[in-house]
Amino acid sequence: MPAVYAAGPSGFTAAGLAFHTGVVLPALAAAGCAVLDPWDPTDPVTIGLATSSDPEPAAELAAVCARNVVLIDACDGVLAVLDGSDVDSGTAAEIGYAAAIGKPVVGIRLDLRRTGDPGSLVNGQVEHFAVRTGGAVLSCPPAELAAPRGFVDRAVALLLAALQ
After folding, report:
1. SS3 content of the chain, % helix, strand, coil (to 5)
2. Taking Cα atoms as reference points, which of 43, 118, 110, 45 lies closest to residue 79?
3. Could you give the CA distance from residue 120 to residue 137 in angstroms, rounded to a whole number?
4. What's the whole-model pTM score?
5. What domain range includes position 73?
6. How does pLDDT run across 61-103, given as a tens digit for each residue?
7. CA-CA distance, 75 to 14, in Å (whole number)?
8. Residue 60 maps to which CATH number?
């Protein structure tokens, strides 16, 4: 059973978290993947950040970052959500780290806005790292945005093929 790290800024918004828990995680589970979830609501590190009363929870955030490195080290590949006006800087860092240690990365974009560099779907360096690992960056067809599960399933299948 391949272990996949589910990267992306999804946990920062209610809508993003709903997509993460309602589409991304079920697609990975249905494909037979063990999911390494940086937004796991049962993880003590996530709970510590979510319940911190500190307006700038540096210690809790440092624990999250350290835990995410452990998860990326343990994964076989990364599925990364790349939505936003630009790729989330934390997600970009996770992609770069995963690529540097030889983990395949597939990035998915369900945001219709063009961003990044000419000739790429997102930041050119992010896309380069994903492609260099044997992965890709995919853009969801507009007709599938209302029901994106099929798009995410195809992205997961591409990631699993890169693991072969």
Report:
1. 50, 15, 35
2. 110
3. 9
4. 0.93
5. 3-163
6. 888 899 999 999 999 999 999 999 899 999 999 999 999 999 9
7. 26
8. 3.40.50.450
Tens digits of residue pLDDT in 29-56: 999 999 999 999 888 888 888 888 888 8
Q: Which helix (H) or strand (E) holds 106?
A: strand 105-109
Identity at 96, one-letter amino acid code: G
In degrees rounded to 5, what are phi and psi of residue 39? -105, 20
Please tell me whether residue 137 adopts helix, strand or coil conformation.
Answer: strand
Helix (H, G, I), strand (E, B) or coil at 80: strand
DSSP state of 97: H
Q: How many domains does the chain have?
A: 1
Q: What span, in angstroms and rounded, lies between the C-alpha atoms of 39 and 56?
A: 19
